[in-house]
Design goal:
By secondary structure, the protein is an alpha/beta fold. It has two domains: about 1-55, no CATH class; about 60-245, Vaccinia Virus protein VP39 (Rossmann fold, 3-Layer(aba) Sandwich), CATH 3.40.50. The chain contains eight helices and twelve strands. It has helices at about 10-25, 80-90, 110-115, 130-140, 155, 160-165, 185-190, 205-215; strands at about 1-5, 30-35, 45-55, 55-60, 65-70, 100-105, 120-125, 145-150, 170-175, 195-200, 220-230, 240-245. The longest helix is centred in the last third of the chain and has 14 residues, at about 205-215. The termini are far apart. The relative contact order is 0.11.
């Protein structure tokens, strides 16, 4: 899927690409043109149109089939992603009776990969497009015990409202953006007293900061294992999965 983001301009070069790209790039399935009036170091379109091909791509991670559109988040290394999900499943050790909360859930793949082993899974995601995609993915996989909520994690956790509205969490998974956890997330996350907390991070620096804060505030919470996944070969970046357990 190609999303070409430009500012306002003539349509002719886009049409020329539409004619040339399918034959020159046989793997291309979809071509979007995005337009923006802003100047930024991140290519985020204000509006976009489908120039050629499919509206969404379809793929699979493990047993979970999913679709993804041009503005949906999905892990960039789909060859290695199943290893992380297997690692999460092993550390979750679900028995079918648990309530699982997946915070910063994106299009819902972690939540859906755990749904068949849990009583219920709840995903929280701030982008409406991702929530809608997660709901479609649940339907595609005939998963009925998954609920996805749209909103910022810090807003939905405020006053522990999310955990008060739903069942007490047995497992909480956080997979925040590079900025890490919002400062207002720490308190309700710890107050929930979940026996297991899994933290998946793409930024070891903010992960280290968050772990120091969580462990200092709650001495009962302990790091059991840290797993590294080389998602981005030949770079300094990696995915890190940290398993934290609460002492009984």
């Amino acid at each position: 899927m190609l999303l070409l983001v430009t500012n306002e301009g003539p349509r002719e070069p886009i049409d020329a690409l539409r004619e040339a790209l399918p034959s020159k790039v046989p793997a291309l399935k979809s071509f979007y043109w995005g337009l923006t009036t802003r100047v930024s170091d991140v290519a985020v379109p204000e509006r976009m149109s489908l120039v050629w091909g499919s509206e969404v791509l379809e793929d699979r991670v493990g047993e979970i089939r999913f679709e993804v559109g041009p503005m949906n988040f999905v892990q960039p290394n789909l060859e290695l992603t199943p290893r992380i999900y297997v690692g999460i499943q092993e550390k979750a050790a679900l028995t079918g009776r648990e309530a699982v909360y997946d915070l910063y859930c994106g299009i819902g793949l972690i939540a859906l990969s755990l749904a068949n082993s849990a009583k219920a899974v709840y995903g929280v995601e701030s982008e409406p497009e991702n929530v809608a995609c997660a709901e479609r993915n649940a339907k595609t996989n005939q998963i009925l015990n998954a609920t996805f909520l749209c909103g910022k994690v810090e807003d939905l956790l405020k006053g522990r409202s999310l955990f008060k509205a739903g069942p007490k969490p047995d497992l909480i998974i956080v997979d925040p953006p590079r900025a890490g956890l919002h400062k207002e997330v720490y308190a309700p996350l710890l107050t929930a007293q979940a026996p297991t907390l899994l933290y998946l991070s793409c930024n070891p620096t903010t992960l280290s900061r968050d772990l120091k804060i969580l462990l200092a505030r709650d001495p009962q919470l302990q790091v059991e294992e840290i797993q590294l996944f080389d998602f981005f070969p030949h770079t300094v970046h990696m995915e890190v999965l940290v398993t934290l357990r609460r002492k009984i």
